[in-house]
Amino acid sequence: MSLAPVVPGARIIGMGSYQPEKIVTNDDLAERVETNDQWIRDRVGIVERRVAADDELLVAMAAEAGRLAVKDAGIAPTDVDTVIVATCTMPYPIPNAAAQTADRIGIVAPGAFDLNAACAGFSYAMGTAADLIRAGSARTALVIGAEKLTDWLDWDDRSTCIIFADGAGAAVLSAAPDAESVGVGPVAWGSAGDLHAMIEVRPHNNALAQEGQAVFRWATTKIAPVALRAIELAGLTPADIDVLVPHQANLRIVEAVAKRLRAKGAREDMVVADDIVHSGNTSSASIPLALDHMRAAGRIRSGDVALLIGFGAGLSYAGQVVVCP
């Protein structure tokens, strides 16, 4: 038996993202439900969000983000051997998004599968891809978080319609040539299945529902320790983190997690993602969207050490330290 060569780990070599053109403001939503711009800003920090057209497919958004990530990596689509799409909003479970997405990009005969860990999906998929590469099962993996949450909303439910949005973000992972080049740390993950009813699609109307206050209390107390564990697994300290990219669930949750990490030694100049302000909550797409937007805006640089931490329905959570490409 000829085994694949062992590699020390994976690194990110490219990123890309996509958002629909349509912008929905808080004032737009106030025309439908009892709310206003200041109420939404105060509670979740959102100013506007992107909404896909009725005929805009999730796989189309995933493919565009993936195409841009492959281009950014400076490789050909045929160099990719594995495609993972993290999503919880495909209209039907069969066929999966990954194989269709790969075909649209021009990736030939890859291993392709979907992963559903809801808002933690991108971190779950990154951890899975990095482990596949380290084990020799993959050499170059395209990881995409893509959601069309607006297909699953009750637009008369103020607790959800003001929060969720659509989009896709992607990263290309490749084998690191040596230990010093490893750029994806071990994943710290877990779940609280006893709390699954906090966020769920209700069968009577197939619409997403959540217990907002309960989710807020859980996330603001339970997520910072997971983030600290991810830092520990990477062999680092909170002071080593240049960039914090939590799932963009709610700006108040993001701020609370950052505050807890700074209390444990994270630097005051640690850059904290706030993409939710203009993108809304895009579930598994939120972390790669935020990373790509921050990079484009010059808020992060190549080589920065970033802490990713996703959490949401399930309840599932996961985080890892990565080096920005």
UniProtKB/TrEMBL annotation:
Subunit structure: Homodimer.
Active-site residue numbers: C119, H247, N281
Protein task: Catalyzes the condensation reaction of fatty acid synthesis by the addition to an acyl acceptor of two carbons from malonyl-ACP. Catalyzes the first condensation reaction which initiates fatty acid synthesis and may therefore play a role in governing the total rate of fatty acid production. Possesses both acetoacetyl-ACP synthase and acetyl transacylase activities. Its substrate specificity determines the biosynthesis of branched-chain and/or straight-chain of fatty acids.
Location in the cell: Cytoplasm
Keywords assigned: Acyltransferase, Cytoplasm, Fatty acid biosynthesis, Fatty acid metabolism, Lipid biosynthesis, Lipid metabolism, Multifunctional enzyme, Transferase
GO molecular function: 3-oxoacyl-[acyl-carrier-protein] synthase activity; beta-ketoacyl-acyl-carrier-protein synthase III activity
Superkingdom in the source lineage: Bacteria
InterPro entries: ACP_syn_III_C, ACP_syn_III_N, FabH, Thiolase-like
Protein name listed in UniProt: Beta-ketoacyl-[acyl-carrier-protein] synthase III
Organism: Pseudonocardia sulfidoxydans NBRC 16205
Enzyme Commission (EC) number: 2.3.1.180
